[in-house]
Design goal:
The structure is a single chain. This protein is of the alpha/beta class and 911 residues long. Strands 1, 2, 6, 7, 8, 9, 12, 13, 14 and 15 form a 10-stranded mixed beta sheet that branches. It has a 3-stranded antiparallel beta sheet with strand order 3-4-5. Strands 10-11 form a two-stranded antiparallel ribbon. It is extended, with a radius of gyration of 44 Å. The structure holds adenosine-5'-triphosphate (ATP). Adenosine-5'-triphosphate (ATP) is lined by residues 2-6, 8-9, 87-88, 163, 165-171, 277-278, 332, 399.
């Protein structure tokens, strides 16, 4: 919403002054549809109707365990979501070829690396990181849209932008994008979404636009209103500004007009106050009222229905739901010492510091789930009181620039954003334990289910077996019946034959003996009865058919049981797979727990050792051990690195860690203690504020002594790293050289092949190469030869340091020649340096190549180098650099060199 250095986009916005918006009427005197909060309309309405969902401190009930990293899930609205956006390089950034960017983004990991110098960097995790190519749309959708959606559902919400001046806060938040909608910032996109979701007949959206400067609130829609008081309702906790102008918005055009008026008023006010826009906070307040029918419970419904049935729509009661969205473009976060150190400027910086640090404390308290959020400390946090924490959603986007020159500001901005994530480190252990418990529970449940399923499948198998048995028995019984039937048939026909014969005999006898006639008839009857009996005992076709049907049914049953068994088997297979997956996850969680446990134990052992070493001063020991613990934590825990817990501890000054004692430990006979002590000194040496004291108290001598006498790889590596850190400053560079540091570094490089040690040595020598006064001694002490020798490690990190050192060296020589205190051929022309530079000018990584290209350009500028430069094939390389270098400034430098060095002219191809 404002910008100091962004004159381009601000002037674009202010240049075309537009007619007054239909409802704001030029802001000083609001139109009939706008209402002043001064005892009038809107404020009254706010007080008269109880809020449907009051937000108060009592509502802040986010449990630590619910701190997942999702912002969209409704269950953790109180968490502050923090994202980072990187501004693309501007002309100033591009003109500094010698500096590496101080940040490197890893968007796929939502992480960024902050590079302190050429050999140390730290990683920080955020909810999202946006690279310089991120679109305005994507930034809005990730940062602000979830807040806007929550506000439309009736909760309050806040979106804030924080960062050093010129890093893109206004671009991100306040860009109007009148000519190009894709350029629109968060404010315009938020209002667009809100207006789209409103029903014109029953809902309303109103805005106030304010600036907070030196703890005084000014109305940007009626700039004569200053020092507007903040009103807080003691019952509901609702914050209001009874004196501020509130303007009703009908459509997006309305709003954009209004924003422009606010911007021009802000510009005019700031010019009057003789301050810059980035020194105040700009706050847009959006009030939303929606008519909704809310479901009531049955009891209330039936009670209320008694008298006022016409008010109800079934079980729904009509209410007005109110919510508020705050969008804040915070003042620039630059340090006090950069903003001026006396008079009004100091006052101004103090007020900014007050509000930003109180905002930081509130974010911290929210992150710690503290019952008390200290909002009373500044007007900014009092204004935000009902719009963050509790059921409100808060999103903070921090903006940073890429340039290493603003490392300190960028680091402190990142630290501010990291505060709310800090807690996660300490709760990590608990989360891991909870996760293990959860997986164990899940595993137990799964095992139980698998057991049940196995039992079920076993009983199905049993049933199937039974059925098979029955089927077999039936088949046997059918077979038996068939055989019996055949036997009966045979017996029947035999008996029939016998009796027919008997009848024939009897008939014959009857004919022969008339007297026997009656007896024969009786016998015939008997035979017929017998024949009948035989027929009755025979198994009929009908019985066989029935048995056949039964057999068929049994087959079908058998088939369906088989299918069920198949299904059960595949289910069992899935369950076993799931069990294996869960086991695997459980295993990895356990592994991590084991690793962390090991690390904790190792730290405890180290502390015990150190305690034995320094028993005499208890409080000094406490300071030291806590620092060492922090140091070891930082090194050993991947999580610690990501969360930046190490950096967030403010007391890293060497005073608090008993420097003298630590320096004494450098000579300890216990190797472990010696290693820890040198690590401590190296860490302290990484901070500018400690360096002078380390050198003054003999730390440099002690480190050089270690290089001279130690054979231990770790000690050599860390001591070289510490010297490299000390070698970043001019005064120390001279001392290092005076004390024979270059020779010792060269010797160290010659007695090791450890790539990390070689990287540290190369880093230290590369830093010494940047001091013009030391070039000659550095060369004489074998520093350049040793620097070049480190490339034998083959490590690209080492090569990068060598290229940086040679570029520093060549650049210092050029400067000396231009300023007239150096003549003659470059000291780099011996030792194979030029050959190495030419050979690697097209192979190394981009940043290393840039340094090699710079070194070659500087060497080519010196006419006394020309003969060897030409003989080594340098001109061809220089021409390629002038055409193909990835950096425009280096292409220009190469072109200029080719143009201005007459000795190279004859070598140029004819065009
Ligand atoms: N993501 C981006 N893409 C393109 N240009 C950008 C981006 N971010 C910032 N800029 C440009 O950088 C310049 C500074 O940005 P901006 O004014 O938004 O910074 P600021 O942090 O608001 O500064 P101040 O605190 O001084 O108001 C502007 O010219 C802006 O257009």
């Amino acid at each position: 919403m404002s910008s100091r250095s962004s004159s381009a986009n601000r002037s674009e916005r202010l240049a075309h002054h537009v007619p007054h918006p239909p409802h704001a009427q030029g802001s000083p005197s609001p139109s009939p549809s706008s209402s002043s909060r001064n005892g009038g309309g809107h404020a009254q309405a706010h007080h008269n109707s109880a809020r449907t969902k009051p937000t108060s401190n009592a509502k802040r009930s986010v449990t630590p365990n619910s701190r997942a990293r999702s912002f969209d899930a409704d269950e953790e609205p109180g968490r502050v979501r923090v994202t980072v956006r990187l501004r693309p390089k501007n002309a100033e950034d591009l003109s500094n070829a010698d500096f590496l960017d101080c940040v490197e983004f890893q968007p796929e990991l939502k992480r960024l690396k902050l590079r302190k110098n050429n050999w140390s960097s730290e990683s920080y995790q955020f909810d999202e990181v946006f690279t310089e190519t991120a679109s305005q749309k994507r930034v809005y959708e990730v940062v602000a849209k979830p807040v806007v959606e929550s506000v439309l559902r009736g909760h309050n919400g806040t979106v804030m932008a924080y960062g050093q001046t010129g890093t893109g806060k206004t671009y991100t938040v306040g860009r109007l994008g009148k000519d190009d909608a894709s350029e629109r910032g968060i404010v315009v996109r938020a209002l667009e979404d809100i207006i789209c979701d409103m029903s014109p007949a029953s809902d309303s959206v109103e805005v106030s636009y304010l600036q907070l400067y030196m703890e005084s609130i000014q109305d940007l829609l009626a700039p004569e209103k200053t020092n507007i008081p903040i009103n807080e309702d003691p019952k509901t906790g609702e914050v209001s500004l009874p004196g501020a102008t509130v303007v009703k918005i009908q459509d997006l055009d309305d709003f954009q007009h209004l924003l422009q008026v606010g911007e021009s008023n802000r510009h005019a006010a700031n010019t009057r106050m003789n301050t810059e826009s980035s020194r105040s906070h700009a706050i847009l307040m959006v009030y939303i009222r929606r008519s909704v029918h809310e479901k009531v419970n049955d009891e209330i419904s039936s009670r209320e229905k008694g008298g006022k049935s016409d008010l109800f729509d079934g079980n729904r009661i009509p209410i007005v739901r109110k919510s508020k969205l705050l969008i804040v473009d915070l003042a620039g976060s630059e340090r006090i010492d950069k903003s001026g150190s006396e008079g009004p400027l100091l006052e101004e910086a103090k007020f900014i510091n007050l509000s930003l640090s109180s905002l930081g404390k509130c974010i911290n308290a929210l992150a710690e789930n503290s019952p008390h959020i200290p909002t009373r400390d500044s007007k900014l946090t009092r204004l935000l009181r009902d719009s963050f924490g509790g059921s409100a959603r808060t999103s903070l986007i921090i903006t940073i620039g890429p340039s290493a020159r603003h490392y300190t500001e960028t680091a402190s901005t990142i630290m501010f954003g990291q505060r709310q994530l800090q807690l996660e480190t300490s709760t990590h252990q608990k989360v891991l334990a909870d996760t293990t418990q959860m997986y164990e529970k899940k595993l137990a449940e799964l095992s139980k289910r698998i057991e049940d399923e196995c039992a079920r499948s076993e009983s199905a198998e049993e049933q199937l077996g039974l059925m098979k048995k029955l089927l077999d028995e039936h088949q046997i019984s059918i077979q038996n019946h068939k055989m019996e039937n055949a036997r009966h048939q045979k017996a029947l026909s035999e008996t029939t034959q016998i009796y027919e014969k008997k009848i024939a005999d009897l008939v014959k006898q009857l004919q022969d003996e008339h007297a026997c006639f009656e007896g024969a008839e009786e016998q015939l009857d008997l035979a017929k009865r017998l024949l009948n009996d035989h027929h009755k005992s025979k198994l009929g076709q009908k019985d066989i058919d029935e048995l056949g049907l039964k057999l068929q049914e049994m087959y079908q049953l058998h088939q369906s049981t088989l299918n069920e068994l198949q299904l059960l088997k595949s289910e069992k297979k899935d369950l076993l797979q799931e069990k294996a997956n869960v086991n695997e996850e459980l295993h990895s969680v356990r592994q991590r727990l084991l690793v962390e446990e090991k690390q904790r134990k190792a730290i405890e052992n180290e502390l015990v050792k150190l305690k034995r070493a320094v028993p005499e001063n208890e409080s000094d020991f406490e300071d030291k051990t806590s620092y060492i613990k922090e140091d070891i934590n930082k090194r050993s825990s991947g999580f610690g690195n990501q969360m930046g817990s190490y950096r967030s501890n403010p007391s890293r000054d060497s005073r608090s860690v008993g420097l003298q004692k630590i320096l004494q430990l450098l000579t300890s006979e216990d190797l472990d203690i010696q290693i820890h002590a040198v690590k401590l000194v190296a860490n302290l040496a990484a901070e500018d504020i400690n360096q002078k004291r380390i050198v003054d108290e003999g730390g440099l001598d002690a480190l050089l002594m270690l290089l001279r006498s130690s054979e231990n790889t770790t000690i050599l590596r860390v001591a070289s790293g510490a010297i490299a850190n000390l070698a970043m400053n001019d005064r120390n560079q001279g001392l290092i050289m005076d004390k024979g540091g270059a020779q010792l570094l060269a010797e160290t490089a010659s007695k090791t092949d450890d790539p990390q040690t070689l990287r540290m040595v190369a880093g230290a020598l590369a830093n010494l190469c940047g001091n013009e006064k030391l070039l000659m001694v550095l060369k004489e002490d074998g520093g350049i030869k040793a620097l070049l020798g480190t490339v034998r490690s083959g490590s690209s990190d080492v090569v990068a340091q060598v290229a940086r050192g040679l570029a520093n060296f060549a650049k210092c020589e050029s400067r000396g020649i231009i300023e007239g205190h150096r003549t003659g051929r470059s000291l780099l022309m011996d030792d194979g340096t030029l050959t190495w530079l030419i050979a690697n000018s097209n192979t190394a990584s981009t940043s290393t190549r840039r340094h090699i290209e710079l070194a070659l350009c500087h060497l080519a500028q010196n006419e006394d180098n020309a003969k060897e430069f030409i003989a080594g094939g340098g001109v061809k390389v220089l021409i390629r650099i002038s055409e193909e270098s990835s950096r425009e400034d280096i292409r220009n430098l190469a072109k200029k060199t080719l143009r201005l060095n007459p000795s190279l002219q004859p070598e140029m191809p004819m065009r």
